[in-house]
Structures are given as C-alpha cells and as structure tokens.
UniProtKB/TrEMBL annotation:
The keyword NADP applies. This is NAD(P)/FAD-dependent oxidoreductase. Its cofactor is FAD. Residues 350-453 form the Pyridine nucleotide-disulphide oxidoreductase dimerisation domain. It comes from Actomonas aquatica. Its EC number is 1.-.-.-.
Length: 468
C-alpha cells in the first residue's frame, strides 16, 4: 500500500465552507490541502448558486422597470430580453469570480487535489486518482445536490434543475415549476419576466414557508399580478411526458379539485439534499442526522471530533455567509484558538431575492410565540412612505420585534423595495444587542427608504414609554 501524504488540515470540498476553513488554517501556519472533485473550481455560490442567479435577476429587475416606464413618465417603446447577451453577460461575470477564486486556491499556501475523496479510516482519505492523504484534522464541506422526491412520475420525466435554468440562452415558451422554496420563487419570477408562461405548483399553503404567511402573501400577490399561474396547498398526483415532447402535471388544488397543467418544460425546484453519499463516512465514524445532514456540535465537530463539517452538508441553513462562518469557526477550533463563539442562531439573516424581496433577521413572531417569550411588534407599510411611493414600489411593510421592557430588538422582517439592503440596518444593532431607543438616536436621511424604519421603532418606543 502507498504511503499517504500527510497534512495538518484537509478540506474536502473547496466551496464556501471548505475553502474558508482552509484559508484560516493556512493563516494559522498549518500545512493544508484542499480536495475538490468538481470539473470547475469555485463552489455552488459562485458557479451555480447566488452569483449567477443574482446576476440574472438584476437584469430582469431592470427589464421590468423599463417595461413599466409609463409609470415613471417615460416613453420606452419596447424593452425585451436578449437571451444571448444575458447569457454571455452572466458567463463573463461568473467566469471572473471563478477565476479569482481558482487563483486564490492555487496559491502556494495550499496543495489542491482535483479529485473526489472518501474516507478509508478516521485519518486517511483515498482520492479518485489513486492518491492517499492523511491529516490530523479535516473539514467536510461537500455541499448539496438537487433532490428528486418520490413524486409519481418525476423520476421518469426529463426535468430541468436550477443549473439548467441559470444557463438558458433562449426564452422557454412555457415552464412548470415544482416547489415554492427560494430557488423555485426566485427563478419562477426570472422565467416569467423574460417572457415564459410559468405555472408554479407548491405543496404547502404558502410559498416561502420559512417566512411568515403575511410576508409570503405579499410575494404571492405580486407573482399572480405578474401573470404567474401559482397554485399553493396542492398535492401532486402525476407527472408525465406528453406526446408532443412537453410535460403535464396533474394535482389536487387547495379546494381538492383535480387540475392538469401542461408546458414545454419541467423545472424541479423541490429542494436540495446533503452531498455525503460517496464519502464512506462510516469508515471515519462520522454520523448523519435523520435528514441526511452530518451531525455537528456547536463547534462544527462531527461525531468524530477531529473531523469537522460546514455548509450545506451539515446545515442547518443553506446560506453562504453561514457556510463561511462555519468553515472559519471549524478551522479556529481545530487548532485550539481561544475565546471562540458558536454561530449565533439569534442573528439568523435571510434574504429572498424576489420582487418584492423578503428579508428577515433574528427571531420571528412565530418562534417567540412558540417559546412563550413576550415581545412587542410594530409595522409600517411601504404604500404610506414617501420614497417608496415615488419609486412605485408600494407593496409590503417593515416590521420590528422587540423585548417589551427595555426595547431590545429581537428581530425584523421587511418585505418591499430593497429589503435585502434595508435589513442590514438591523444586523449590527442586533449583534450589539441594541434597543429601539439606541436606533432612534441615529440620524435617518430624508427621503430614503431606510427612514421608514423609524416608524415602527417609534411605535415600540412609545408603547414602552406609555405614550402609545
Ligand atoms: C440557485 C441557488 C441560488 C442560491 N442563492 C443564494 C443566495 O443568494 N444567498 C445565499 O446565501 N445562498 C444562496 N444559495 C445557497 C448557497 O449557494 C449554498 O448554501 C453554498 O454555496 C454552500 O456552500 P458549501 O461550501 O456548503 O458547498 P459548495 O459550494 O457546493 O461546495 C462543495 C464542494 O465540494 C465538492 N465535493 C463534493 N463532494 C466531494 C468529494 N467527495 N470529494 C471532493 N470534493 C467534493 C464539490 O465539487 C464542491 O466544489 C443558493 C443556492 C442555489 C442552488
Ligand atoms: N436567497 C437565498 O439566500 C437563497 C437562494 C436560493 C437558494 N438558497 C438556499 O438553497 C437551499 C435550497 O433551496 P430550494 O428552494 O431548492 O429548497 P427548499 O427546501 O427551500 O424548497 C423546496 C420546496 O419544495 C417543496 N417540496 C419538497 N418536496 C415536495 C413534494 N414531495 N411535493 C411538493 N412539494 C415539495 C417544499 O415544500 C419547498 O417549498 C435553501 O435552503 C435556501 O436557503 C438560498
């Protein structure tokens, strides 16, 4: 048997979690290897996730504004997508990001192995190119893959995944989108705005079920107004290919009525599952949760304490800044850094890049109610705010949730223009445990979208002061 090459730290997977763990370990002076089996380096976020989707969505936001030029007193005779250019722009932008990441990975500080890894014992991995590597400590950051749930007919019907939709260079005539999660919603609106006829079918009673029904309903109304044939509270009965090469989906709608929808293409956006199947984790003594995610503790350690995990393969949320934070924490903990803090669930930040977008931070009303934690809440609508009115962006609201005695901010939810940017008015205050009174000491420029936040802050302050 060959002698393994030895390292202090090996990252299996060079995405957001693995790469950032490797970077920190190298900063700490350790001998580090990154093993990644992908054809192209960069990870999901850069290649087929956040960056391509947001590049395309920005273009369709601009397109939508141009198509509604009349609202702004503009005469734009025709505004249409040019799919070849849109596709080329996306490829150029993503190409640059990927090149930058690949350069960062190919520095002398790491050895990079372009192969798939699997464990043969708790300290040794075998690579698909036949090499053996050994390390004192590991991080598993192998990400996630598209799920194919056991829906009748799905496995036998050709379908697109988000990878295909993000790489389109033509306008599909019609698409049935299965699912109502973030991927389904962001890309349904993209498809609809480039000119496809879109049917979206979701099992639960609201889309984006991780958010409040109140927030989801704002987006559902916008989708229906834009012409998306959206069905929620459904149960899919059958999926099949039609004789003309299209697809047909039969489902029970929320009233129990049987409906069939046909389209040229099917887009499976029914979720993602952790990518751990080929790692032979049993050989390393690394256990999985029921969900298939790798079991971790607050320091990202798996059930085999010198093996850490970060990102989509362990969750609990598939969000990039968390994958980065988990990777960094794992590497620091692995090499004994003191005064570390676990990733703080009370600061959970989420942005859905639909239009209107939804953004939230911290605890939700539903969570606080379920825990029996007392709280105050106040909200204010965008249709009564100067800046959003002049932007013709009147859907949605801002909501602040605070502790009832001192007014410490516990959470916030924003649905409406620039929600993904505005929510960052709360990130530092929440991290610093600020109160509504602290935020009201700050200046708020007029006329901005951000100044809308002062209204719910003032309402809560008044309630605590007894002035309400
Ligand atoms: C369409 C879409 C849009 C998204 N948009 C956003 C967004 O706007 N904001 C946000 O926060 N999140 C977004 N996400 C989620 C985000 O992309 C992921 O949470 C994040 O990229 C996961 O990072 P990771 O490091 O866990 O995995 P990845 O980046 O997937 O990295 C895993 C790496 O491991 C490698 N690998 C796998 N198995 C092996 C093996 N056995 N051996 C060696 N290498 C292996 C893979 O090749 C890959 O490079 C989006 C996801 C999708 C699908
Ligand atoms: N803006 C962002 O931060 C962003 C963008 C895209 C993706 N992501 C992340 O990527 C991850 C994957 O997103 P996703 O949208 O693919 O997954 P998801 O799990 O969020 O959504 C999957 C959807 O499919 C539905 N579904 C699942 N099984 C079903 C069945 N058998 N029948 C009918 N409906 C079914 C679910 O109810 C859910 O609405 C998410 O965790 C998300 O955090 C984040």
């Amino acid at each position: 048997m060959k002698r393994p090459i030895s390292y202090d730290f090996i990252a299996i997977g060079g995405g957001s979690a693995g790469f950032n763990a490797a970077r920190v370990a190298a900063d700490l002076g350790k001998k580090v290897a990154i093993v990644d089996g992908a054809e192209e380096l960069g990870g999901l976020c850069i290649l087929r996730g956040c960056m391509p989707s947001k590049t395309l969505l920005y273009s369709t936001d601009v397109l939508h504004l141009a198509q509604h030029g009349k609202l702004f007193g503009l005469n734009i005779p025709s505004a249409k997508v040019d799919m070849k250019r849109l596709h080329a722009r996306k490829k150029a932008i993503i190409g640059e990001f990927a090149e930058y990441r690949a350069k960062a990975m190919m520095q002398k500080r790491y050895d990079v192995y372009r192969a798939h890894a699997k464990f043969i014992d708790p300290h040794t991995i075998a690579l698909s190119d036949g090499k053996l590597l050994r390390a004192e400590r590991f991080i598993i950051g192998t990400g996630s893959k598209v799920s194919v749930p056991p829906l009748p007919g799905l496995a036998d019907t050709p379908f697109w995944t988000s990878d295909d939709v993000l790489d389109l260079d033509f306008v599909p005539q019609s698409v049935i989108v299965l699912g109502g999660g973030i991927v389904a919603c962001e890309l349904s609106q993209f498809l609809s705005r480039i000119g496809s006829r879109v049917v979206q079918i979701q099992r639960s009673s609201h889309i984006l079920k991780e958010h409040s029904p109140e927030a989801s309903i704002v987006v559902e109304d916008a989708f229906r107004d834009e012409g998306i044939d959206l069905h929620t509270g459904t149960s899919i009965q059958s999926i099949r290919t039609t004789s003309d090469g299209g697809v047909s989906v039969t489902f029970l709608n929320s009233d129990g009525k049987k409906l069939t929808r046909r389209a040229k293409h099917l887009f499976n956006a029914l979720g993602r599952s952790p990518n751990t199947g080929s790692l032979d984790l049993a050989n390393a003594g690394v256990e999985l949760q029921k969900s298939g995610r790798i079991k971790i503790n607050q320091w990202q350690q798996t059930t085999q304490r010198h093996i850490y995990a970060g990102g989509d393969c362990c969750g609990p949320h598939d969000i990039v800044h968390l994958a980065v934070a988990q990777g960094e924490l794992a590497a620091r903990h692995a090499f004994g850094e003191k005064k570390l803090k676990p990733v703080d669930e009370n600061l959970l930040l989420s942005v859905v890049f639909t239009e209107p977008p939804i953004a939230s931070i911290g605890r939700s009303e539903a969570q606080l109610k379920a825990e029996g934690t007392p709280f105050l809440t106040a909200s204010y609508p965008f249709d009564d705010h100067g800046k959003s009115i002049l932007m013709e962006a009147k859907r949605g609201y801002v909501k602040v949730i605070a502790e009832p005695k001192r007014g410490r901010i516990l959470g916030a939810e924003i649905v409406g223009p620039q929600a993904g940017e505005l929510i960052h008015c709360f990130t530092a205050p929440l991290a610093m445990k600020a109160t509504v009174f602290d935020l009201l000491k700050a200046p708020w420029y007029h006329p901005t979208l951000a100044e809308i936040l002062t209204y719910p802050l003032e309402d809560i302050a008044d309630e605590i002061n007894g002035d309400a």
